[in-house]
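Can't paste images in this forum, so I'm doing it all in text. The chain is below; anyone willing to post the predicted structure tokens underneath?
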Amino acid sequence: MQTESRAAFDLTDDQRQIGDLAAEIAQREIAPHIAQWDREHAFPRELYTKLNAAGLMGLLVPEEYGGAGADYVSYARAVEEIARVDAGSAVTVSVHSMICMAILKLGSEEQKRRYLPKLAQHDTIAGFALTEPDAGSDAAALRANAKRDGDAWVLNGRKQWCTNGGYSTVMMGMFRTGGPGAGGISAFLVDNDLPGVAVERVTEKLGIHTSNTCDIAFDNVRVPQSALLGEEGTGFSNAMTALTGGRIGIAAQACGILSACLDASVKFAQERSAFGKPIGAFEGISFKIAQMATDLDASRLLTYRAAALYDAGKPFAVEASKAKYFASTAARKHAAEALQIHGGYGYTTEFPVERYYRDAKITEIYEGTSEIQQIIISRAYLGKL
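Text version of the structure:
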């Protein structure tokens, strides 16, 4: 039995249909291959051609720019259903969509016309380049720089852990254009095929093996003035704006992992017997499933609430942090419980719960660690003491 997401929120027909479409494609195009992709650390490039054809890569892009014009709740549903089968594919879609929204919210009309139709319709992928070896949670400490040269900018530096970087057509990158601190950072849209842009290293990770994560070198990369995204000196705030919306996608990814854990645990608890009865009859197992199901509903409610606030044009940053913090914690906790329910089988690659266990941890780290989310949440109540 698969967990029913509608029980946690009053979805519209359109929102439910988009979720159903994502689930159908994930089961057909990802499920038969995910074990091999995970084992080989393969980036399934052809998958995104199919997701693009179904409109899922441009869900949030308005119709005037070639997208589906769907709302954020629909997007969260789609990401969750993809993550239910493969968390790595889900984060590829999530980061791509985050960049689409950054261009929509911050870009000039020329940038919107140039990039959004490609990203929504033309089988292209967007990447994100913020983190550096010495600038992680303290992103304002980044060193990569952009210097004016006539009517252009010249970019130099190294970026680490760039999601989608090796397969993207365009990246949103943050570079220092002024003095120290957040006010000296600007955001740029950088085409990956420009001279001087190079993948230096593909990162081998604990989980989300189907997600491309790499280090990118920018060596005297010349971009036009029109590559600047937003105003000069607003890059840090622009990155934080993008990440705030992106946290809803990561919360939805965590919901998908947790949903898969519950599905697998219920099935195993019903089919596996010990001491003459299904193991689900024992409280040591049934109570784990009860807590898992409760935390899944709570995670969905928090995630869909943040998405609904985004759709309504209301403040949502704190709610997005709550959703990401709670859902990621629950996914990591219950992935471990799902493995425990499966016993020795769970520790083997014959069952997918070991993959859920490996995939879940990253949701507590990227797009703002759990500690960063707690800072955001606590300051909303206490102020900056």
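Residues 235-271 form the longest helix (37 residues). The radius of gyration is 21 Å.
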